[in-house]
Specification:
It is a single chain. With about 525 residues, this protein is of the alpha+beta class. The protein has seven helices and 22 strands. Strands 4, 7, 8, 10, 11, 12, 15, 16, 21 and 22 form a ten-stranded mixed sheet that branches. Strands 9-19-20-14-13 form a five-stranded antiparallel sheet, with no helix packed on it. Strand 19 and strand 20 form a beta hairpin. Helix 3 packs parallel to helix 6 and helix 4 crosses helix 5. The N and C termini lie far apart (about 80 Å).
């Protein structure tokens, strides 16, 4: 009898909870900046730790399963399978989604293992199809960079940062600022590597030896044919010529102390070695470098495509890098509701151990003429320690306004990026290493116009402004240059990567490394696998 009474009471309790829950679900919070009168804004009730990708997002950018399978070399999705690159020569676009798909495929290709299913073999970016761009060396008062070939069995070198506040040095390595970052989770300094592909390298070499024109990066089959022909005179066969010119920047941490190191794509590399005090790290003159196993945490992908000599600028991050601030997206109801996602929680992020703190994105140390010193501008007693990082614009747009010509709200833009991620990551095989990396966004200009350095807004719509995710930043590379959550006219990649004072489409207008790179000497270096 007692058991029956208990069961009846339990059933009654569940009914009450269900009714209350249903009533709560129907309660909606309306805001004045809804995308339309028919679209309501709901506050997400639960935000799990590391909740980066809402499942109920409007499917506004998806990759068809048949198309996705065709990305793989085997024409079938497989765990850690080799992906082929997007064809940038035949690239066509009707909307933002086409640029986002291009970005995703390029990332999956570059981070594919060399051997099918086996990351112990290394990744595509470690092959001779790519070159590492050296830091600047001053030779006879001339700033020079070299392209370092990737040779099987030879480790690639990474740097911590290079000087940014010296206007005489045009830089690309490291942070967008002079700052240096240490990971909260394992106290590893962040390392960086800039690379270009073989098409870029041959294009540059041909131009700097007077054999090719470089008024802009290649975008057509005709130009590619000229680059391919020149490469053959150097004894080089381009590995994937359809990619056109690509420049990437990657960020890494030492895997030592990472309890989840198996969730990262890794690479053995040569890194700088320092003699350390609490306030100053100096290069160790007795042993200037050491070897380390590095974990990939971020990647900028910049590539020319048909009709876009200004290049498409995309960025990716490891899912556990840093917590997001609050953001909005559209769900898949009819009509769509605008959902507000609360700021991420948790204290076990790679770059943040106190997500509840209001102190974040504050530099603790800077790079100074080869040394790393405590940033006393942050605090007079500052020491060299890890700092907390947050993503202030989680999906590459501001927290209000109109981010691009296609999306009338930030929620709509965010939805496209989240939907792209859900589509791609959801179709990757279980256990695929690349499922741990998320797409933050991509930006370009309308009709490939020379970038003005400014971002699209309701009142700034001229050709040349950044569109797509027009306030794009990466927590590992623009940590201290995210410009908060609000719109910033100079908040896009093009604010730094556009000609000054004259805007243009020349490689030297867009790239920070192109001008100083010396032509390859293929009689000494043969780019073959």
């Amino acid at each position: 009898m007692k058991k029956l009474s208990f069961n009846a009471l339990l059933m009654l309790t569940l009914m009450v909870v269900t009714i209350v829950a249903c009533n709560k679900k129907e309660k909606k919070e309306y805001v004045t900046n809804s995308p339309s009168e028919d679209t309501e804004t709901l506050v997400a009730a639960v935000t799990p730790v590391h909740s980066k990708l809402p499942a109920d997002v409007l499917k506004s950018c998806v990759v068809d399963p048949t198309d996705f399978s065709s990305w793989f070399k085997s024409k079938s999705v497989s765990e850690n399978g080799v992906v082929t690159p997007a064809n940038s020569v035949t690239f066509t676009h009707l909307n933002n989604c086409d640029f986002y798909k291009w970005s995703e495929r390029m990332f999956l290709w570059m981070t594919s293992p060399i051997k099918e299913g086996d990351y112990k073999s290394g990744t595509v970016i470690e092959t001779p199809a790519f070159y590492t761009v050296s830091p600047i060396n001053v030779v006879n008062n001339v700033k020079e960079r070299t392209l370092i070939p990737h040779v099987s069995g030879q480790m690639i070198s990474a740097v911590a940062n290079t000087q940014k506040n010296d206007l005489s040095i045009d830089t690309e390595e490291g942070q967008a600022t002079d700052d240096v970052l240490i990971a909260q989770k394992n106290d590893s300094i962040l390392y960086y590597i800039t690379m270009v592909n073989d098409v870029y390298a041959q294009f540059l070499t041909g131009a700097k030896t007077g054999k090719l024109f470089d008024n802009e990066f290649p975008t057509t089959q005709t130009t590619l044919d000229s680059i391919t022909a020149f490469a053959k005179t150097q004894g080089v066969t381009l590995q994937d010529p359809e990619t056109l010119a690509i420049e990437i920047k990657t960020s890494w941490v030492d895997v030592t102390g990472l309890s989840n190191s198996k969730d990262y794509i890794t690479m053995d590399a040569i890194v700088p070695n320092y003699t350390k005090t609490d306030t100053k790290w100096t290069p160790n003159t007795a042993k200037p470098t050491r070897t380390a196993k590095l974990a990939l945490i971020g990647m900028h992908i910049v590539g020319s495509t048909a009709g876009h000599p200004e290049m498409v600028w995309a960025t990716f991050e490891h899912v556990n890098n840093a917590p997001n601030l609050s953001y909005k997206y559209l769900n898949n109801s009819t009509p769509s509701d605008t959902i507000t996602v609360a700021a991420d929680t948790g204290n076990d992020w790679l770059l943040n151990n106190d997500s509840a703190s209001d102190t974040y994105n504050k530099s603790h140390m800077t790079y100074d003429k080869g040394d790393i010193i405590a940033n006393t501008k942050t605090s007079p007693t500052q020491t060299i320690t890890a700092s907390n990082t947050k993503m202030t614009k989680p999906w590459g747009v501001a927290d209000a306004g109109v981010p691009n010509p296609e999306n009338s709200s930030v929620a709509a833009s965010n939805s496209q990026i989240i939907s792209t991620n859900n589509s791609v990551l959801g179709q990757l095989a279980s256990g695929d290493m690349r499922k741990n990396y998320i797409f933050i966004g991509a930006t370009w200009t309308n009709n490939g116009t020379a970038p003005t350095g400014e971002s699209y807004s309701e009142t700034l719509k001229t050709n040349g402004v950044a569109i797509g995710t027009s306030q794009l930043a990466n927590s590992t590379m623009e940590t201290y240059a995210q410009h908060g959550s609000a719109y910033n006219k100079g908040g896009s990649c093009f604010s730094c990567h556009s000609g000054y004072p004259t805007k243009g489409l020349k490689p030297t207008d867009l790239s920070h490394v192109y001008k100083a790179i010396q032509a390859l000497n293929e009689s000494k270096t043969t780019n073959t696998q």
